[in-house]
Design brief:
The chain is of the alpha/beta class and 490 residues long. The chain has five domains: 83 residues, Arc Repressor Mutant, subunit A (Orthogonal Bundle), CATH 1.10.10.10; 59 residues, Arc Repressor Mutant, subunit A; 115 residues, no CATH class; 106 residues; 89 residues. 53% of the residues lie in helices and 8% in strands. The chain has 19 helices and nine strands. The protein has a four-stranded parallel beta sheet with strand order 7-6-8-9, with helices on one face. β4 and β5 form a beta hairpin. The longest helix is centred in the last third of the chain and has 21 residues.
């Protein structure tokens, strides 16, 4: 469940429509009516509402309609991003979470008044919110109304919420002045300031502001943030803590027994800052954590599968910190959650060799560190992403020899071009250099003198979408068979 599912049907419809045009550039009215399952009148009204928003924001419409075809005008990514933030921020679920964070309410009736809604609507939205918050192991309770769960989960959820909904629009932390916080961080940890702009990265401001706000409302008092009190992150938060009045010594007690903070150590824009990456990695080398030991184990496993050249590419501080962030996140939060950011579930083509080694590595990691089992799927997905982002794994796939019949010469170049886009390791043969056999024959006939594993037959001159899908399936089957024949073991 994504936060977009908690928005009104009207807001969801606007966002889905805008997302469709962002991806495809144009759509027919009939196609959109089938996808949105609304009347043509409602669709046209939705188009007008999006154009009105775009006119106010960018001084131009987002769409134009010509002969029952809807066309995008320019790049819609920014418009989609801003529309989501605007509709999400104004939604009742977002208002409920914001009010609960600042602890300005004590009952549903007061909450309803602040949200300009009825108590019935508030109860309905809380019920939906609790379904969404279940993934964070959190729940909203009443009498008094409050959000309950582990403190580190609450902080993590609110960082994701405020970053996704408010960043770029306004500073949501009314208890922590932004300018003063910037000054404190620059004094306590100057390596967090950008060398180009001399400003703190925005994401770390949100990280710290969440914690200080929780302290200010007496929800989180302890000064110890991470497992290691000498962590550079702990030092930042300790020095920033003077922005919030903690009260008398009696009030300085641990209301929540939570000593972990993976927000700052998790995936974040600030973690791409060169100085911070090396500062943190040097710290972990000298003060090894469980996540650091997991990293060392992972690098041993990668050395088995990768060439020396590729291993050297992965043996870089910036990339190793990405792996460590994954381990920190799954250790602290049993997974990486991005429920507040919609439209990110895009299918990516998986390299079969990469899928195989990620499967083997994750299994070995879980055997060594059993507590990782609760986030096995997340570990595989994140390892796959980091490896695919930094290395080309096509060359690791077993070679598939393909012979394209010369009788189909008009399709020859087009077939090669489309097959290459499927990202398998293919070698294209001709009759002049073909051996006695090949893995795949693409032909309209079957030469009796040639042996082949599989055959793809075409009886027409144009490749259809179905042909393309079938070719992908055949290449996948051949690759899997060859991988099975050449299993790589530890």
């Amino acid at each position: 469940m994504n936060f977009i599912d908690l928005l009104s049907k009207k807001d969801q419809r606007m966002l889905v429509l805008l997302n469709e045009l962002t991806i495809h550039g144009s759509q027919t009215i009939d196609e959109l009516l089938a996808k949105l399952e609304v009347s043509k009148k409602t669709l046209l009204t939705t188009i007008d509402e999006i154009n009105l928003f775009s006119m106010k924001k960018y001084n131009q419409a987002a769409f134009s309609v010509q002969k029952d075809v809807l066309f995008s005008i320019g790049n819609l990514n920014a418009c989609l991003f801003d529309l989501y933030k605007e509709t999400a921020k104004q939604s009742i679920p977002a208002q409920i979470l914001t009010q609960l964070f600042t602890q300005q309410v004590s009952s549903t009736s007061i909450l309803a008044e602040k949200c300009f809604s009825s108590t019935v609507t508030i109860h309905q939205n809380i019920k939906q919110l609790n379904v969404f918050l279940k993934r964070y192991d959190l729940q909203i309770l009443s009498s008094p109304i409050r959000i309950t769960g582990e403190e580190h989960q609450i902080r993590f959820m609110y960082k994701a919420f405020f970053w996704a909904i408010y960043y770029g629009n306004e500073w949501p932390f009314i208890l922590v002045p932004k300018e003063k916080l910037i000054k404190e961080i620059e004094d306590a940890a100057p390596y967090l300031a950008s060398h180009h702009t001399n400003m703190i990265q925005e994401t770390i401001l949100y990280d710290i502001a969440v914690i200080l706000s929780r302290r200010a409302t007496k929800n989180f008092i302890t000064r110890q943030i991470t497992h290691n009190p000498n962590s550079p992150l702990n030092k930042i938060l300790y020095n920033s803590g003077k922005l919030v009045e903690l009260g008398s010594p009696k009030e300085q007690v641990t209301l929540e027994n939570s000593f972990t903070l993976a927000i700052l150590e998790g995936p974040s824009i600030v973690n791409r800052d060169y100085s911070l990456i090396h500062e943190m990695f040097f710290h972990y080398q000298n003060n090894p954590t469980t996540a650091y030991h997991m990293l060392l184990t992972l690098m041993e496993y990668l050395h088995v599968f990768l060439t020396d050249e590729d291993y050297r590419k992965m043996d870089m501080t910036a990339i190793k910190m990405q792996f460590m962030q994954v381990f920190s996140m799954v250790t602290y939060f049993q997974g990486i959650k991005e429920d507040f950011i919609p439209f990110r579930d895009k299918q990516e083509r998986n390299n079969l060799f990469l899928t195989q080694i990620v499967q083997k590595i994750s299994t070995k990691l879980i055997d060594t560190y059993p507590k990782l089992a609760v986030a096995e799927e997340v570990i595989r997905r994140q390892l796959n992403r980091i490896l695919a982002d930094n290395l080309d794994f096509t060359k690791y796939l077993p070679a598939i020899t393909i012979l394209i019949d010369f009788d189909m010469n008009p399709l020859h170049n087009r077939l090669i071009h489309q097959i290459k886009k499927l990202d398998y390791h293919c070698l294209f043969l001709s009759y002049l250099d073909a051996p006695n056999n090949c893995d795949l024959l693409i032909s309209s006939s079957i030469p009796s003198e040639l042996a082949f594993r599989k055959k793809f037959t075409l009886f027409h001159r144009n490749l259809t979408y179905n042909d393309y899908q079938l070719l992908d399936q055949l290449l996948s089957e051949l690759t899997r068979e060859k991988l099975a024949e050449n299993q790589i073991e530890f």
